[in-house]
Target: MBL fold metallo-hydrolase
Amino acid sequence: MSLTVLGAGTPYPRPDNACSGYLLRTEENAVWVDAGPGSLANLQRHVSPDQLTAIWISHLHADHFADLASAYYALAFSELRPQRRIPVYGPVGWGGRLEAFLTNSQVAAMSAVFDEHELHDGHQIDLGDLSLTSRAVHHGGIPAFGLRAEHNGRVLAYSGDTGPCAALDELATGADVLLCEADSDDPTEVHCTPEDAGGAARRGGAKRLLITHVGPAMTPEAAAERAAKVFGGRTAAVSDNDLYELR
Ligand SMILES: [Zn+2]
Model:
């Protein structure tokens, strides 16, 4: 299984620093995890959007979701029209939110390119050689999910956006990689600090910690340094188009 970073930035995309997006690949799958603005452009460096086997959205904040509208345009109105509908998994109401962005005639075409699914806590997706488990996390009271991806005994855990919570610790348990947000400089229930990310990795016994979604009050490098002090293990801040192999 490999993880390609399509965007690690927030709250808005900058040149070479798109918002939240990741690509998970196995022999049989290419799954786009979070569709932050700018991540669709980076995705195309690695896979054609019509070749995606699934799209998974953690929550409906624009910095994780807005490029789904761009993906709809790519799939519905270009040469990329997919052979089969692409399954999209997201929080309750994601389809309606996207529809609200589109005109009436476009809404009618949405079901031709996207196969709509809604997530719940403990939701399981079986994609052949890849299984995805979604866990409800704490992010300011809106429906939000973290992800645990398993392939051939390897585990990638992704926080989505969350404050420190039991579900985040459970996602991190025994993970080969914990990809964790560290948006906040100071403790809050809405986002993790670098220390919160390091603590989740330590308690879960994760083998490696990757820091992402670092807020404007810190540099990613400083956030990774702070997280590493608490985690005590291998830690790095990710950048767009970084590739990590989980073997
Ligand atoms: Zn958010």
User: Anything to note?
Assistant: Residues 59, 61, 139, 161 surround zinc ion (CB under 6 Å). Helices lie at 39-43, 62-65, 67-77, 94-101, 104-113, 166-172, 194-204, 220-231.
